[in-house]
Amino acid sequence: MILPSDQLYKQSKLIKLGKNKVKQEYLAIIDWINFKYNVNVLNILLDYVIVAKEKLPRLYVVLEQSTDYNKFKKKPFIYDKVKQNKIKDHFLAFFDKEKIENSDSLFVVFGNFEKVYYEEINESITKKDLNRIAYEIDKENIWGISNMFDATTVFYYSDSYLAKIDKVNIKDRISEKLFSLLKKKDQFGYCAIEKILIYFDTKENFDNNYQSNWYYYYK
Prior knowledge:
alpha/beta
């Protein structure tokens, strides 16, 4: 579950909205994980992935908030193997193994619902609104503002001008304007102004180093 378009995210969002329910067979493992690690599991899915031509079972545990998700990370992009194995062992001990193909190869991964949800509402801010923010902040020198995933990038025209600006002040002003837009879209109250990610770049860099191509820039 990485993108708002992913089916598992859509299913989890319906559960959060109260329009769908977690499968009955997963409720016991959810209760155990919640109690064991003091978190809130929003959804669980058992599916299969092909690794080196082998079909492996995957238990996808969707944590509701980022603070919960981070409890299962050892380092950035690296899960805590001890916790993964404990969840795996507990799941296999109480779940009907006959329903799982190649059950000994089961592995556990985690999803961050809050992060993907924030990406969804952040990317829903219109170009018109972003252009208005650019106009209000510094219409002469901001080339444009781009929102992609969970971050917003402010593009000035030149590297030399960007080096002169008070980035903290500009960031705070843009954060306030973005927050006023985000909170209108936030159904779950996840958004906070301190969570808004704002980066600075220039059209000069975009043109010279990325061939003026958004695909290359965000690749």
